[in-house]
Structures are given as C-alpha cells and as structure tokens.
Specification:
Mean pLDDT: 91
Order of helices and strands: HHHHHHHHHH
Low-confidence stretches: none
Distance between the termini: 48 Å
Largest sheet: none
Number of strands: 0
Radius of gyration: 18 Å
Helix content: over 70%
Number of helices: 10
Structural class: mainly alpha
C-alpha cells in the first residue's frame, strides 16, 4: 500500500524540479537574465533537493522496517546506479566544464544504502542527524569531498555530507507522520500520484526535452 501524502510530496518536488530546470535553461539560452547565485533562485534548488531526500528517508521506513529487504534494495541501488552513471556520462559529453559527478541522484543512491543501514538503528540515526547539523551549521565544518579532488564546478553538486541529514530526518520523522490520521487517510490526486510514482523516469527525461525545445526555439526565434 502506497502512502498518498508521500506520493503527493514527491510529485510536488517533481513539479518544482521541472520549473527550476526550465528556468535555468531559459537563462542558459539567453531568454532571461535571472541571477541563480543568490536569493530565491539559489534557495529553490536546495529546497527541491531537500524534499526529494526527505522523501527517500520516509520511504525507507516503509520498505525496510523492521528489517532490510536486501533483494529489493539491491535492485533499486542497481537502477539508481545506472541512472546516475547515465547522468554523469551525458553531462560530461555535453558540458565537460561542469559535468555532474555527484548530483542529487548520486546522493540518493549513496544515501539510500546508508539510510537502509540505520533505518532500524534509530538511536544511531539521531546521533548522526544531530552531529551533522551541529558540525555543518553551528561549527561551520565542511568537507570539500570530491570537488576538492577534481577541482571542478558542477551543474548539480549534492555531496552525501551534509546532505545525508534530510534522509535521516525522513527516517526519524516518517513513523510519526504515518500516525497522523489526516496524512494516513490522504487520497493523493492522480496527477500527483503519477508524478510521485514515476519521479525517476521524469528526472531522466525532462531535462533533455526542455533543453531540446529551447534549443530549437533559439535556432528559429
């Protein structure tokens, strides 16, 4: 049984993602001159990433409690891994100067594995969540991570630290959300349900479609 509120939240994140990428591509082709390095356009993609990762954490509760189902997890990790590889290869071919070597999908891949390992270890999940929040946002501790090794900018860089914390938050808050009657009985509209259930496919195809349409417009307009 699917959680209607979770499909709705994931579907909303898909809509936000399409809006952001369409806006980003409009700027890329020179149709607009919006500044994506500050203000709303800087915060918006981070809200989107948080929402997707938070949903990953909630989903782990449904899929892997009270024990990890390794067969389904391995199948999902393989699918995510292949999709993440496709994103990296395609962006390297098209945008070698700022290709995606560890974006949202890569973070979901690694975070899904790590999250599955702690979803039934809730005290450990709490310790990790608090430790990451304190280290990153109070002590201003940062890890350059892969970007330090590659010394390259990326179109989408979502490192597992500190971005594992939204997954942990979803893991820890998910059981409480499922107990709220309004959420438990929420009937997700079919449109949002479709988006939520096919978010990975939409993630993979929406950007090439948007980019292609705007490319053609740039040629003929």
């Amino acid at each position: 049984m699917r959680a209607g509120y979770l499909d709705a939240l994931r579907g909303l994140a898909v809509i936000w993602m399409i809006i952001f990428h369409a806006s980003y591509d409009l700027r890329l082709f020179g149709f607009v001159d919006w500044n994506f390095s500050e203000g709303f356009w800087f915060a918006f993609p981070r809200v989107i990433a948080f929402t997707f990762l938070f949903c990953v954490g909630i989903s782990l509760n449904y899929a892997h409690t009270p024990k990890i189902h390794w067969k389904s997890l391995n199948k999902r990790l393989l699918k995510l891994g292949l999709c993440a590889l496709a994103v990296s290869v395609s962006t390297y071919v098209m945008f070698p100067q700022n290709w995606i070597y560890f974006g949202t999908l890569h973070c979901i891949l690694v975070g899904s594995l790590l999250g599955a390992l702690v979803v039934n270890q809730r005290p450990l999940a709490w310790i990790l969540l608090v430790a990451i929040l304190i280290a990153q946002y109070l002590l201003d501790f940062d890890i350059k991570w892969i970007s330090f090794l590659l010394q390259k900018p990326s179109m989408d860089f979502i490192p597992i630290y500190p971005w594992f914390w939204p997954i942990l938050a979803g893991i820890l808050l998910g059981p409480y959300l499922s107990k709220i009657r309004q959420l438990r009985e929420f009937k997700c509209p079919k449109f949002f349900s479709f988006l939520g259930q096919h978010s990975l496919k939409i993630y993979l195809i929406h950007q090439p479609l948007i980019f292609g349409v705007l490319y053609l417009l740039k040629l003929f307009v």
